[in-house]
Amino acid sequence: MTREHGRHLGLVHGGRSRRLAPVLQPGNAVELTWRARLEDQLGTFQVEAAATRAARLMSSGLALSGLATLAAHLRGLPERDPHPELFDAADSLLDRMDDPAAAPGLLARFEILLLAELGFGLDLASCALSGATEDLAWVSPATGRAASRSAGEPWRDRLLPLPAFLLGPASEAPLAGPDLAAAFRLSGHFLDLHVWAPSGMQAPDERSRFVARAVAESGGDLIK
Q1: Contact criterion met (CB below 8 Å) for 194 and 120
Q2: What is the rounded average pLDDT of the residues 123-141?
Q3: Which of 3, 23, 107, 217 has the largest CB neighbor count within 10 A?
Q4: Is residue 47 a contact partner of residue 24, using CB atoms and an 8 Å limit?
Q5: Topology (CATH level 3) of domain 54-217
Q6: Each residue of 103-115: b (16+ CB within 10 Å) or e?
Q7: Higher-scoring residue by pLDDT: 171, 19
Q8: Residue 30 CA to chain centroid, in angstroms?
């Protein structure tokens, strides 16, 4: 995954050598130089290490599941389609993936951003029923539009809970288990609706493991 060129394939000669094998590990950041005779060829990469995170991430089961989940999300992007905001979010998340307080909330936000980057963004700015911008508490599973607590109350059994932390600025403060469960249920519903099911896929197993562990460690239960 590159910032300016999106998900970009290329061949690394000697990728399993003693020099490069430690560099080409999941979670690391590298500087790449791509060369090819023609634009549509696979081409080759020259690789230099930029930030080595792999050893640190491997020491945490939560981080490994989160890293695998992130990789699965990025692998589904179209090749050579730039998503700089998504790249920056992924890079920031990888710096904190082994932090059990910060990583779950950041990954949930990443999934909401991923939906937006793929053209399926949720409308969480105002209530679809009243136009209110305060106390938004629900999301329609059909339209992805928010509803305020009072306006959505009569249909609460048909709506998805909207945890408040998704509406404010990103924070690394620990989140309650129920809020995390609601956030991943929300993003998972729309990822399945727009991304996984149309492609004949299911949610990555790694994501299920990450969510279960993150919610349990935060004192909550999964919402079915």
Answers
A1: yes
A2: 96
A3: 107
A4: yes
A5: de novo design (two linked rop proteins) (1.20.1440)
A6: bbbbbbbbbbbbb
A7: 19
A8: 20
Q: What percent of the chain has pLDDT over 90?
A: 93
Structure-block tokens of residue 203: 């949610």
Measured CA angle at 25 (ends 202, 67), to 5 deg:
35
Please state, in angstroms and as integers, the Cα–Cα distance from residue 208 to each residue in 22, 187, 188, 212, following that order: 28, 13, 10, 6
Two structure tokens written together for 16? 């399993």
Ramachandran region of residue 144, left (φ > 0), alpha (ψ -120 to 50) or beta?
Answer: left
pLDDT at 174: 83
Instruction: Using CB atoms within 10 Å of the CB of residue 152, give its burial: 0 to 12 exposed, 13 to 18 middle, 19+ buried.
Output: buried
Strands 146-148 and 136-139: antiparallel
DSSP string, 17-57: STTTTTTSSTT-EEEEEEE-SSTTS--EEEEEEEE--HHHH
- Check if the beta carbon of residue 81 is closer than 8 Å to that of residue 119: no
Lookup result for tokens 């339209």 = 143
